[in-house]
TrEMBL record:
<feature type="compositionally biased region" description="Low complexity">
    <location>
        <begin position="44"/>
        <end position="55"/>
    </location>
</feature>
<feature type="compositionally biased region" description="Low complexity">
    <location>
        <begin position="28"/>
        <end position="37"/>
    </location>
</feature>
<dbReference type="InterPro" id="IPR013658">
    <property type="entry name" value="SGL"/>
</dbReference>
<dbReference type="Pfam" id="PF08450">
    <property type="entry name" value="SGL"/>
</dbReference>
<dbReference type="InterPro" id="IPR011042">
    <property type="entry name" value="6-blade_b-propeller_TolB-like"/>
</dbReference>
<protein>
    <recommendedName>
        <fullName>SMP-30/Gluconolactonase/LRE-like region domain-containing protein</fullName>
    </recommendedName>
</protein>
<feature type="region of interest" description="Disordered">
    <location>
        <begin position="1"/>
        <end position="77"/>
    </location>
</feature>
<dbReference type="InterPro" id="IPR052988">
    <property type="entry name" value="Oryzine_lactonohydrolase"/>
</dbReference>
<feature type="domain" description="SMP-30/Gluconolactonase/LRE-like region">
    <location>
        <begin position="187"/>
        <end position="407"/>
    </location>
</feature>
């Protein structure tokens, strides 16, 4: 657990080992300082301005693009081109994703270059060997310039942790004053958030997936972004049947909330025997309507809408089970569905394999404003264009468990004990926020 006034030296470093701001300090304290883009194109940035989110009544307009790959890309010590033909023909030439690479940005197709910008960087912001505080969620809250993160399971010997099998999950917030100036603090909610997992921005705060415990129900909670971080339960059952352990959540521009519900909590011993299949749901807070929209998964996990919201991506991380067992014959796949509307309600059709992660499992998913899909995988962040072609990778030592976009090309990557900052081109922005 975090102590309230413990100081650590934070030495953000580039991928080649050069440290930045060696005197910077990170504080653990109780003090608190207080548009979706609907364009989808070939995966290349342009100078066109953003516009309001797409909806069934507001179809998207295509974005023109003119920006060319940066002229100095071959001179950057952070970039490495992958020879796709050699990779396909000679296995020994494939770069090992398990070993740290001197050049973290791997180019599989030239359309990845404009996304990187002229000088992409990878920085290690925090390395905390005490516990895996940087595991899931990853929600950047623009009004407060704060990053919210959830930990992996931590040991908890307190008497009230018996229902979670003596485990707990800590919510951390990182208040950002500049890319290398920040404070870090544990979120202390008046109400306990049982085993929080994935999250997303919602209204003035954020939604967190509460996985629940052996006694407390799982579901969705709304948490205020500012202290004292009050919480409200939005949903905790499917027509009186308990959810398994909600994992990830996204919000549609019509106000509906979509979330995945695998059985990881049961496999890890802090949830009862499942009473529902592993599904993806849509919840409408305005009407109270809760419905299943997708099934047939091994372990449904990450979710993302395309910028025009005509497509929803859902990852199946069945390759890894909650007990730690790994079976590479099982799914590590992202599926794409077309969002259809009939009788005033959405449904999903045209399920197809969008991509398969070659390393680990595609956990968190997000699109940029150009329609490219990013996924946290076993070797870092993998990037596919809208057609499902792998165009690039951001290799991170020991992989990436989840990530989120920040401002102007920033990506915050979680690696259990480590928090990384990636800087891409300033036009490469997340579709969720469009900033």
């Amino acid at each position: 657990m975090m102590s309230q006034h413990h100081w650590l030296k934070a030495r953000p470093s580039t991928s080649d080992g050069n440290h930045l701001s060696p005197g910077h300090k990170v504080s653990f304290s109780d003090s608190s300082k207080s548009s979706n883009n609907n364009k989808r194109d070939s995966g290349r940035p342009s100078t066109a301005s953003n516009s309001r989110p797409a909806s069934p009544a507001n179809p998207p307009q295509r974005r023109s693009h003119s920006q060319q790959p940066p002229q100095n890309w071959s001179d950057s010590r952070n970039l490495q081109r992958i020879n796709r033909q050699s990779e396909a023909l000679a296995q020994q030439k494939v770069i090992s994703p398990q070993a740290p690479q001197p050049k973290p940005f791997l180019i599989y197709h030239d359309s990845f270059l404009p996304l990187l910008g002229p000088n992409p960087t990878l920085q290690l912001l925090i390395d905390d060997p005490r516990a895996p505080y940087f595991h899931e969620a990853g929600v950047f809250h623009p009004p407060t310039n704060t990053l919210f993160l959830t930990s992996n399971e931590l040991e908890d010997s307190s008497p009230d942790a018996v229902t979670t099998r003596q485990k707990t999950i800590v919510i951390t917030k990182v208040e950002l004053f500049s890319p290398t100036d920040f404070t870090r603090d544990k979120v202390r909610c008046p109400e306990r958030n049982y085993m929080a997992c994935g999250g997303t921005n919602y209204r003035d705060g954020l939604i967190l997936c509460a996985q629940g415990s052996l006694r407390e129900p799982s579901g969705l909670i709304y948490m205020e972004a500012k202290r004292p971080h009050k919480t409200v339960t939005l949903l905790n059952n499917y027509h009186s049947r308990p959810f398994n352990s909600p994992h990830d959540v996204i919000v549609h521009s019509d106000g509906s909330i979509w979330f995945s519900d695998p059985i990881y909590g049961y496999e890890r011993g802090f949830r009862p025997k499942p009473q529902l299949p592993q599904l993806v749901y849509r919840f409408d807070p305005a009407t109270g309507d809760i419905r299943a929209v997708a099934d047939g998964f091994g372990r449904p996990s990450g979710l993302a809408f395309s910028p025009d919201e005509h497509t929803v991506y859902i990852s199946d991380t069945d390759v890894v089970h909650g007990d730690g067992a790994t079976d590479y014959r099982r799914s590590a796949t992202v599926y794409a569905y077309t969002v259809m509307w009939e009788h005033g309600a959405p449904f999903l059709a045209n399920k197809r394999v969008f991509c398969y992660a070659d390393t680990g499992a595609p956990n968190g998913l997000q699109c940029d404003v150009f329609g490219n899909l990013y996924a946290a995988c076993g070797d870092g962040v993998n990037v596919w264009n809208g057609g499902g072609m792998l165009i690039g990778k951001i290799q991170i030592e020991n992989g990436c468990t989840n990530f989120c976009f920040g401002r102007n090309g920033e990506i915050w990557c979680m690696g259990e004990h480590k928090l990384w900052r990636v800087q891409l081109g300033t036009e490469t922005r997340g579709a969720l926020l469009g900033i």
